[in-house]
Amino acid sequence: MPLTVLNVAYPLAPVGPDAVGGAEQVLSQLDAALAAQGHRSIVVACAGSVAAGELIATPAPQGVIDEERRHAAHEAHCRAIRAVLARRPVDVVHLHGLDFHEYLPPPGPPVLVTLHLPLSFYPAAALAPRRPRTFLHCVSAAQRRSAPAAIDLLPEIENGVAVESLAARHAKRRFALALGRICPEKGFHLAIEAAARAALPLLIAGEVFPYPDHRRYFATVIAPRLGDSTRFLGPIGFARKRRLLTAARCLLMPSLAAETSSLVAMEALACGTPVIAFPAGALPEIVEHGKTGFLVANAGEMAEAIAAVGNIDPEACRAAARARFSAERMARRYFALYEALAAGGTPPRPTA
Fold first, then answer.
1. What is the 3 state secondary structure string of the chain?
2. What is the pTM of this model?
3. Above 50 in pLDDT, residue 352?
């Protein structure tokens, strides 16, 4: 029986096929899969978003994102969610934002909250919602293991990527790639250091969001190090990302945060490109050391791994991505959970 699912995005970042953030990309994949399988998909997201289903757009923030703009975005999301629930039956509300507790709907249909970020990023009260029929889950085993025992979580659902759309092959070129949100915790400055030590050109792609600390990091730490051997490309769409990931010798991920997942690492492997990463959070669950890339402790070890990356078989990377990281597998698991929640059943809890 067709479902009606209301997916609610983080209010300060647009969703769509070319979205930058992992949460936004996952939401976009679920929206597309719902629409393709005959379900009704409704998406509440800021203006500039693209949806396969019905888009309910809230105003996009303008200028530097401060507390006043955050509050206005929360209020706009609250109004949009309440309006949808008031005029049509919704089987499941699925919240994706770090600030989900600011626009949690009133009692009614079941709410699923995907915790895309490290649990320490969320206020303690948000992780123990009083609203009935509100269920939280993680996106990796590593993330769930970090949770205090008192937090009630459903089994994790690992993220996935469009593996088949990333199957194109291009000749490898002499450069490394670093890709993602340009912010201090992603460690792009360490990727620059490692690539320089390995004497390999580095391309950096991603968006500098209008948060003061993100802009300051780019202006004071990244921009002064750019030059002939280190180039910043800015935001890129899916097609260009696919070309770069396929052509790169390796993807560098010197993250300083406990990553809950990594879509870009999964995408790189689907393109046949090894990943060299710090063992932060869930990255050891994605990168098989010595088989699909290398796990390293610092920029010096990352430089050494760059020199050894030719020993990694691209076909082993592609095979791992097909077996473990497909968007179809992720969508099937979400759809099964949507159906269980809509039927009023009690979803299973983790066994370990």
1. CCCEEEEECCCCCCCCCCCCCHHHHHHHHHHHHHHHCCCEEEEEEECCCCCCCEEEEECCCCCCCCHHHHHHHHHHHHHHHHHHHHHCCCCEEEECCCCHHHHCCCCCCCEEEECCCCHHHCCHHHHCCCCCCEEEECCCHHHHHCCCCCCCEECCCCCCECCHHHCCCCCCCCCEEEECCCCHHHCHHHHHHHHHHCCCCEEEECCCCCCHHHHHHHHHHHHHHCCCCEEEEECCCHHHHHHHHHHCCEEEECCCCCCCCCHHHHHHHHCCCCEEECCCCCHHHHCCECCCEEECCCHHHHHHHHHHHHHCCHHHHHHHHHHHCEHHHHHHHHHHHHHHHHCCCCCCCCCC
2. 0.91
3. no
